[in-house]
Every structure is written in structure tokens, then in C-alpha cells.
Design goal:
Helices cover 11% and strands 47% of the residues. By secondary structure, the chain is mainly beta. The model has no long low-confidence stretch (mean pLDDT 82). Strands 4-7-6-1-2-3-5 form a seven-stranded antiparallel β-sheet, with no helix packed on it. It starts with a strand and ends in a 15-residue tail after the last helix. It is elongated.
Length: 119
């Protein structure tokens, strides 16, 4: 899944690859929850300003964007929707996708279904 996170006061978007725990000190039993993410580039500033901070479009950085971050840096879960801009593949951040995004595909879940399958 995709997240919005804060690193050193900056706002970033990333794809979560996996979670793990690390013992911060060999003398303690306390484990620190961490995750490996692939960061997206910073949003296109020109478009962001022209569209009143409503259109966050970023590039996927692949392996160059790999970072280990603390789970506590997560701010929210988001969607990163692929789109083309000037012939280049980019990703647009979409907040709070919820069921309205699922409905775009025409698949609806009936909350009463015991098998939790699409109806």
C-alpha cells in the first residue's frame, strides 16, 4: 500500500514494501517497528502551485528511492494513481480512497456477506 509520511519535517509519499522489527540495543528486549519503503519524488512544484495545492504528481524512483523508516513517520494511507504527463509516467496522490474508489471498478461489497466476496 501507499503512505504519506514525514521525514525530517518534509512531506513524502511512498510505497510500503514490508515491515520488520529491529532491536535498538542488544541489552534490551524492546523492538523498534520499521518498514522498507520506496519513496516517490517530491511533487511537481509548478503544478502544485498552479492548482492551489490540489494536484500532487510524483515520479516513482524505484530502487533509488528505497529507505528504511520508522512506522511512526506514517501520516496517512493514500492512493498513487498512475497517469501520463508530457509523455512521462507519473503518479497522482489521492487521499482517502475508501469505497468511492472501489465503486469506480463496478465492484461492490455487501456488508452482510459472510464470505466477504463481491456481489
Amino acid at each position: 500500500y501507499f503512505i504519506q509520511l514525514s521525514i525530517k519535517g518534509g512531506l513524502y509519499f511512498a510505497e510500503v514494501l514490508f515491515f520488520f522489527e529491529l532491536r535498538s540495543d542488544h541489552n534490551t528486549q524492546m523492538l523498534k517497528p520499521l518498514t522498507l519503503v520506496s519513496l516517490y519524488s517530491t511533487p511537481d512544484r509548478t503544478l502544485l502551485q498552479e492548482l492551489n495545492d490540489t494536484f500532487y504528481t510524483c515520479k516513482h524512483q524505484g530502487e533509488a528511492g528505497l529507505r528504511v523508516v520508522q512506522v511512526t513517520t506514517f501520516l496517512s494511507v493514500v492512493s498513487m494513481i498512475p497517469h501520463m504527463l508530457a509523455g512521462e509516467e507519473r503518479f497522482c496522490m489521492f487521499e482517502k480512497p475508501g469505497m468511492d474508489l472501489a465503486n469506480l471498478g463496478g465492484i461492490l461489497w455487501d456488508g452482510g456477506d459472510k464470505d466477504n466476496q463481491p456481489t
